[in-house]
Amino acid sequence: MTVVTAAAGALPDLVRERPPGPGGCRLVTVDGWSGSGKSVLAEQLGRALDAPVLSIEELYPGWDGLAAAIPLAREWIAEPLFHGRPARWWPWLWDRDERSPDPRTQPCVPVVVLEGCGSGAAALRPFTSTAIRVDCPPEERERRLRARPDWPGYAPHRARFLAQEHRYFPTAPEPDVVVRAR
Description:
By secondary structure, the protein is of the alpha/beta class.
């Protein structure tokens, strides 16, 4: 495991050095607790690598769906990209509390970043080129969450989602890289 501190400027080179799957795609996962900074890091990494950034949160079937999203991410995103096929998934429509009938697709490209809590799960690791986890102290995560513009919609569900994170992270495999956020 490599530990990178601060802005993680070395990550693009590290990703490029890792071998792609047989289909030519390097799937990079950016996992971490809510509020850790994984979305910001994933967007920065996506820009640096000219790579699309997908969110596993689109796969959660509602607020209790962290565990249920992992096999969907494997079937719909990780396996196809690993084998050189396009990813195809049906995003969760949060405002309607149902799966969209219209799929989204992502062609197989040299690098795809999948971010969100659960993206570093063991079920996805065989298809992952680089697994990154963002660590941040709990009090800072909470401060960040409460400062977000979407906090009022998230606040009623925070305790339920935090309980899912507490079940998930002790069983998550060690990442290839840990980025320590402040």
